[in-house]
Amino acid sequence: YKDVLTSHLYADAITMMSGLGIMNGYEDGTFKPEATVNRAELSKLICNVAEADASTIVFSCGDVDANHWAVKFVGYCVLNNIIALEDGLYRPENAATVIETISAILNLKGFDGNGTDNEIVDIAEECGLLNNMSNLIFDEAITRGEVAQLLYNSLELDYEIYCQEKFLEMCNSGSYDGILDAMDSELYQYSLFSVI
């Protein structure tokens, strides 16, 4: 893209997301990495990265009717608990925030992206979702470049593998309490049969 130099922070992610058909540029040959993404567009990008077939989804809510261009994408995200409604509304034209986007991607990948903002950021940092991201302001609108990097990072996320690694880390802490904590955690259910 003529507006994404190889030195751009998110150039690799933008190239990969475009190559996979997850995100597209514009007819004028630009990507517009600094442009913001609204919540309707986010739902489509989530479906694209999930390779979800939303064509059979039947859905509507207070502000997304059956004729809205993104109704099937929004429906997929809402019905699969990836993005939640607020007061029965989706607010499709509102800018998606950085924290909403991180939460949606965590939910898509099997993590719990529904805690407080700090909890969501902690999980995202620990699992690698925020790799190569800098100067994020979590309550501000997310840019296309930032979305590309988050989606790129999400390709490597696997909740079951993450749980197995964390479980083994806790068990290998060398303390009896560490092993008990591991056994009591939700990580145990994903790890028990994989490590025996």
Question: Can you tell me about this structure?
Answer:
The structure is a single chain. By secondary structure, the chain is an all-alpha fold. It contains nine helices and no strands. The protein has helices at 11-19, 39-50, 71-79, 98-108, 117-127, 144-154, 159-171, 176-184, 187-195. Helix 1 (11-19) crosses helix 6, helix 4 runs parallel beside helix 6 and helix 7 crosses helix 9. The longest helix is centred in the last third of the chain and has 13 residues, at 159-171. It starts with 10 loop residues before the first helix and ends with a helix.
Q: What does the secondary structure layout of this molecule look like, with pairings?
A:
Elements: H1 11-19, H2 39-50, H3 71-79, H4 98-108, H5 117-127, H6 144-154, H7 159-171, H8 176-184, H9 187-195
> What is the H-and-E element order?
HHHHHHHHH
Over all CA atoms, what is the radius of gyration?
Answer: 18 Å
Helix content: 40-55%
Tally of separate helices: 9
Q: What is the arithmetic mean of pLDDT? A: 88
| Computed structural class | mainly alpha
Largest sheet: none
What's the total count of β strands?
0
Strand content is under 5%
Q: Which spans have pLDDT < 50 for at least 5 consecutive residues? A: 187-196
Silhouette: globular
End-to-end C-alpha gap: 49 Å
